[in-house]
Amino acid sequence: MEGHKAPTHSSADMDELLGIHVSSPRDDFQIREVHVSSALRKDPLPGIDYSFNPYIGCYHGCTFCYVPRILQIDRRTWGASVVVKRNGATVLAKELKRLPRGLVAISTATDPYQFVEGKYRITRHALEVLLRANWPVSVLSRAPLMIRDLDLFTQFADIEVGMSVPTLDDRARSFLEPWAPPIDARLRCLRALADAGLTTFVGFAPAYPPTGGWTPESIAEVFASAGVKKMFTRALDDRCGVPEAMARQLDGSELAEDLRRIGDLETIAPFVSRVGEECRARGIDFRSAFGFRSTDSNSGFGSPRTKR
Ligand code: SF4
Fold first, then answer.
1. I need a surface site. Which of 16, 88, 108, 163 has the fewest CB within 10 A?
2. What's the 98 CA to ligand 1 centre distance in angstroms?
3. Considering the domain boundaries, does residue 176 fall inside one?
4. Which phi and psi angles does 167 have, rounded to 5°?
């Protein structure tokens, strides 16, 4: 990546920049623009050939996010800034001409529909490029802004679109991913995508422990009702300061005791196994993250050491 002297925007001028009001995860949230020299990255996850990440950093700043570990970013600064790859789609177009065709995952290390996408449209422009080249894509987000690009999704010959929904208890969500969109909004987005005839999937990852009275049956029922066709899961990646960050976030919360069990496989594994059974009973292809796209994988609980 090649940085350049592009503008840096603070929260003070963000309303003007975006034309909408959004509360920042931190008062000093920064948006920085760069030009990059590469767009696609070979991805180690089975079944995915490349990843395309339009941004570096993520407004959502989820407490459990594994990306700070991968990028070796101080977790305490995660969610404080985002770097916009201004020419990402242009570079992508050039790469598609010389690389072997393969499945592109959007995204693996950022949220492609975090709020800055409303302004910058790097994800949308990348989709336009991929559509013209007729490459297969898999899109995953926590943000219902994704529905804006329905017109493009429906033109692809080979596409799957998904939402990360690791719990149905929005109160639990508000503790561990407080700046990500509410669960209901994600479910509505999934329903709209399915209604448009698209194959939809859910990333039930990292699987939260059961809270709010949700049972494996009721969870599976909600996803089936939303038209979800596939699900993958994985356990919490608890390296690099995740337990400490979660402890800080949960301090004093009445859900602290329950949510701390997100890293306890003795709690999570049997729960997720039951969720999987109930989902499969309703026709949802439920798999571990590692085997999500692999036909010969087991369909048990995913390794805590795999990416989504
Ligand atoms: S939305 Fe995804 S990339 Fe963004 S902070 Fe949350 S887990 Fe990380």
1. 16
2. 30
3. yes
4. -155, 155
Domain membership of residue 246 (yes or no) is yes
Helix 216-225 vs helix 265-281: crossing angle, to nearest 10: 50
In eight-state DSSP terms, residue 19 is S
Q: Is residue 58 part of a domain?
A: yes
Is the C-beta atom of 308 inside 6 A of ligand 1?
Answer: no
- Please give the helix or strand (H or E) that residue 152 lies within, else none: helix 150-153
Q: pLDDT band for position 25 (50/70/90)? A: low
pLDDT at 136: 98
User: What's the pTM?
Assistant: 0.88
Name the residue of 64, 78, 106, 110 to mutate for ligand 1: max ligand atoms within 8 A of Cβ: 110
Residue, of 70 and 16, whose pLDDT is higher: 70
Residue 62 CB less than 6 A away from ligand 1 = yes
Domain assignment of residue 266, given as a range: 8-288
Ligand 1 contacts CB of residue 68 (under 6 A): no
110 lines ligand 1 (CB under 6 A): yes
Q: Name, in order, each residue with C-beta under 8 angstroms of 88's C-beta and a sequence gap of 6 or more.
A: 36, 39, 52, 54, 122, 125, 126
Contacts of 51 (CB under 8 A, 6+ apart): 40, 41, 43, 104, 105, 106, 107, 108, 109
Distance in angstroms (rounded) separating the CA atoms of residues 233 and 308: 8
As for how many domains the chain has, the answer is 1
Q: What CATH number corresponds to the domain at position 54?
A: 3.20.20.70
CA-closest residue to ligand 1 atom 3: 110
* Residue 187 within a domain: yes
Put residue 84 in one of left, alpha, beta given phi > 0 → left and psi -120 to 50 → alpha: beta
